[in-house]
Amino acid sequence: MSIKDILVYLDTGTACAERVDVALRLAKTFDARLIGLFVRSLPYVPHFVAAQIGPDIYETQKRVAEREEMLVRKAFLERCAEANQQGEWRCDEGDMTETVCLHAKYVDLVVIGQFNPDDDHREGEMGMADNVVIDAGRPVLVVPYAGKFPKVGTKIMLGWNASRESVRAAHDALPFLTRATSVEVVAANPQDSEGVHGDIPCATICAHLSRHGVPAVAKTVYAEDMNVGAMLLSRAADDGVDLIVMGAYGRSRFRELVLGGVTRHLLNNMTVPVLMSH
To answer: What's the confidence (pLDDT) of residue 94?
Structure first.
């Protein structure tokens, strides 16, 4: 599979520029079309508020949304021009997650941002990364809100637990994996999943990936004093990894929200871009 269409979600947040730059570099790498999508939220005012203030509040919301759209469009097209890369601008209106997932059906990769609690955010942005990862049906690259990422996919860590989600992630990521200079395939606490990894954890998936030209090396790690998500991030920092690939929400999302889990930890604490598939 090759990547020919990339969709990047655009907003007014401080991290949007870096997200666009990451998407532009990927578009150049894969010779892909880049689509910038801005979702204009439907004006909403509770009836009791509208009764107090009057209909002018709807017009005010509409003008604010139009101004935001104009500013985001200008910034996106300027960055595309600076990178000498053609970008397609799209603006749609509706529920944020549903709209992103609709446009995601017709692309090979979706690029969105980690939720930044310090930014002013619009209705629906808080849980959007989780929802898009689950509902889009496409691989989703989540870019952290803090930091610069001049390289994405040179050194890759692939989290592997032989689940359906990790199988999907490994194959969705093949365009990245085949271009990487090194790929660590990491099984965390393989004794917890006895029987699914084979005699040597990760050996079989590494052999399969190598037939695709992936320089995959099997690693086994154990997390005793910290959870698996924290351990993966720590190892990624130590090894200079610039992209983590993993299956998302192997357990139910509700269970991860309540009890914690690898997906939830990485979405909250990521330090490098993470490519997720569900």
So the answer is: 87
Return the number of other C-beta atoms located less than 10 Å from residue 133's C-beta: 23
- Average pLDDT score over residue span 19-41: 96
With 90 as the cut, is the pLDDT of residue 245 above it?
Answer: yes
Q: List the 140-143 sheet strands across, edge first.
A: 87-93, 33-40, 5-10, 109-113, 140-143, 274-277, 243-247, 155-159, 182-188, 216-221
More confident residue, 248 or 99: 99
Residues 263, 92: Cα–Cα separation, whole Å:
29
DSSP letter assigned to residue 51: H
3 state SS of 192: helix
Residue 16 clears pLDDT 90, i.e. is over it = yes
**122-152 pLDDT per residue, tens:** 666 777 888 899 999 999 999 999 999 999 9
Can you list the alpha helix ranges (DSSP code H) found in the chain? Answer: 16-30, 47-53, 56-82, 96-104, 128-135, 164-172, 174-177, 203-210, 228-239, 253-259, 262-269
What is the residue whose two structure tokens read 């990790």? 166
* Identical topology for domains 5-143 and 155-277: yes
Q: Which two tokens stand for residue 182?
A: 């090194």
Taking the domain 5-143, which CATH number applies? 3.40.50.620
Question: SS3 for 185?
Answer: strand
- Other beta carbons less than 10 A from residue 154's beta carbon: 15
CATH of range 155-277; options 3.40.50.150, 3.40.50.620, 3.30.1360.120, 3.40.80.10: 3.40.50.620
Helix 16-30 vs helix 56-82: angle between axes, to the nearest 10 degrees? 40
Residue 89: helix, strand or coil by DSSP?
strand
pLDDT given for residue 259 in this prediction: 39
Six-digit token string for 157: 């860590």
